[in-house]
């Protein structure tokens, strides 16, 4: 029996690695389990979204169109115009609903990558490092290879694109970028976007801007988006695709509702691909999504919860860890090797064993590239639960770190 030749290049997902790390470990029964490992929103789903699903259950009797409803296109276009203070995109040609940004991030590479045009090796998909693991899988299974640009803590975790060789840029066909970033929470500046747009103009690659954390932020000014940056720089959306989702914004990860928007020519080809891929969104989910994109009150309430949570927990953890409030998103990205040189994996394993708290080793979210693994000796903590549970976890982590310092 034969299989896709690149499937063997896929690594186990971080949570599978975590399961192996914890194999045979018995957590301290004196503590109830608390997981800060998975970035799955735990705040309640707004009632009006639940109600919209129930009201529109008749939609289950119809095959949905892959392109999605006009109402959903309009709701997304209006949200983008309000959120980023830009002229509304053409709802018919520049917007496409998708079943969550994850599946679209993967499928986009299948549409963009053309292995036949590279003379000096397979095409490249440029990814930040650490990164959302879908980028790597999308690269391999589209016939390309990932090229990792390491996050630089001295640059607010932005990669130094100037260090990437010319020969690499000439093979790049797709660049993934996540802003606000997972796991660092860093937000790209207008200068960062100008650099990426200039590189895209020079080498002709497509930019896929993963912006699923855009509505969780801690400063007065909302994070800059890619479409907004293009608008401010006086350019159109050529070779630019923005991807977003309701999962974090509206606490509906199970709804699997998001969108892609941007370059009309790419959107046309992506719609063609999706027509065959079978990615149409259920009519009842489309209807609920319209209500979600049209409402900002629940988003502001959700953001306020995160702000209060991070204001309490970040200073507490900063007493024992090298960690600071991120620009946005719901992760803390902490360095741990200052604690008697403990590794990120050993920190996670011992914390789980002694205090029944799960965190994700940073090395699981990155790859060794250019001589280092930029996630090594860091941990990612997802503060997604209600504040009381997150505070309890933070207090246990503080106690654990103090035992490490006492050794």
From TrEMBL:
Gene3D superfamilies: Aspartate Aminotransferase, domain 1, Type I PLP-dependent aspartate aminotransferase-like (Major domain). Keywords: Aminotransferase, Transferase. The lineage of its organism: Bacteria, Pseudomonadati, Pseudomonadota, Betaproteobacteria, Burkholderiales. PANTHER family: AMINO ACID AMINOTRANSFERASE, L-GLUTAMINE--4-(METHYLSULFANYL)-2-OXOBUTANOATE AMINOTRANSFERASE. Its cofactor is pyridoxal 5'-phosphate. InterPro entries: Aminotransferase_I/II_large, DapC_beta/gammaproteobac, LL-DAP_aminotransferase, PyrdxlP-dep_Trfase, PyrdxlP-dep_Trfase_major, PyrdxlP-dep_Trfase_small. One of its GO terms (molecular function) is pyridoxal phosphate binding. Pfam families: Aminotran_1_2. It comes from the Bacteria. Its EC number is 2.6.1.17. Residues 34-397 form the Aminotransferase class I/classII large domain. GO terms for biological process: lysine biosynthetic process via diaminopimelate. NCBIfam families: DapC_gpp. It is an enzyme of class 2 (transferase). This is Succinyldiaminopimelate transaminase.
């Amino acid at each position: 029996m034969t299989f896709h030749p690149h499937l063997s290049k896929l690594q186990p997902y971080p949570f599978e690695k975590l399961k192996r790390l914890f194999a045979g470990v018995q957590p301290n029964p004196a503590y109830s389990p608390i997981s800060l490992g998975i970035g799955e929103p735990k705040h309640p789903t707004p009632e009006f979204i639940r109600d919209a699903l129930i009201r529109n259950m008749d939609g289950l009797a119809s095959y949905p169109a892959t392109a999605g409803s006009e109402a959903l296109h309009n709701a997304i276009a209006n949200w983008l115009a309000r959120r980023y203070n830009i002229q509304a995109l053409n709802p018919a040609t520049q917007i496409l609903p998708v079943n969550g940004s994850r599946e679209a991030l993967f499928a986009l590479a299948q549409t963009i990558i053309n292995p036949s045009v590279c003379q000096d090796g397979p095409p490249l998909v440029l990814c930040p490092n650490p990164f959302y693991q879908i980028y790597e899988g999308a690269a391999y299974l589209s016939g390309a290879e990932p090229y990792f640009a390491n996050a630089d803590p001295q640059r607010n975790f932005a990669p130094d694109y100037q260090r990437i060789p010319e020969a690499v840029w000439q093979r790049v066909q797709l660049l993934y970028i996540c802003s606000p970033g997972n796991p660092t929470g860093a937000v790209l500046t207008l200068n960062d976007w100008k650099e990426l747009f200039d590189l895209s103009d020079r080498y002709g690659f497509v930019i896929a801007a993963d912006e699923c954390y855009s509505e969780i932020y801690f400063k007065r000014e909302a994070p800059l988006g890619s479409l907004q940056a293009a608008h401010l720089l006086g350019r159109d959306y050529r070779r630019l695709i923005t991807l977003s989702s309701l999962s974090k914004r509206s606490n509906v990860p199970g709804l699997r509702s998001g969108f892609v928007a941007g370059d009309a020519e790419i959107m046309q080809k992506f719609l063609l691909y999706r027509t065959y891929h079978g990615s149409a969104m259920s009519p009842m989910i489309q209807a609920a999504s319209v209500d979600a994109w049209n409402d900002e009150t629940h988003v502001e309430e959700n953001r306020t919860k995160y702000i209060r949570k991070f204001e309490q927990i970040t200073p507490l953890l900063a007493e024992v860890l090298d960690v600071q409030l991120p620009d946005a998103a719901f992760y803390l990205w902490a360095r741990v090797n200052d604690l008697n040189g403990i590794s990120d994996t050993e920190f996670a394993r011992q914390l789980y064993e002694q205090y029944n708290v799960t965190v994700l080793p940073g090395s699981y979210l990155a790859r060794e590239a250019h001589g280092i693994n930029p996630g090594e000796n860091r941990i990612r903590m997802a503060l997604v639960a209600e504040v009381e549970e997150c505070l309890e976890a933070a207090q246990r982590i503080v106690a654990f770190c103090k035992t490490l310092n006492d050794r």
